[in-house]
Amino acid sequence: xxxxxxxxxxxxxxxxxxxxxxxxxxVHDSLHTFRHWGSEVSAxxxxxxxxxxxxxxxxxxxxxxxxxxxxxKNMIRNRDDKRWKNAELxxxxxxxxxxxxxxxxxxxxxxxxxxxPLEEEMKRFNVLRExxxxxxxxxxxxxxxxxLVLTTSRMRSSNLPSDVYVGRSQ
Length: 170
Fold this sequence. Notes:
single chain
């Protein structure tokens, strides 16, 4: 990531963080609905939950540097929380991240590049969720596509230790 790209991201860390948390939640919600299909969907759902929880915990820890612990927890749980669009909070995060800003932005962008395609792939399940049809009867029609399998594989291989997410040293 170039300095110019990071500088552009640095102007809006909070929205980028929010969008990635939101994407993880959307994908998890979709997979959670269909987790009983079989072992592969169940395994993917479990892997995603682990990655989502690691990412959410790290986001909460970062947010706690700028807001109190309860506020950070509420922000992670509530995608409609007004603080996600708070310019002052965003500025405070820029100051708090300081030397770790470039690394943090790079991790958020890399995570987003993995989760966003998965989120798009999961949209094919929205019709079933909305209509609440018997999913088992339609399972053969909606087996995971190659793109879903590849994206999940990338997600599994990017299983970074949690201390990398905020630039902490061992």
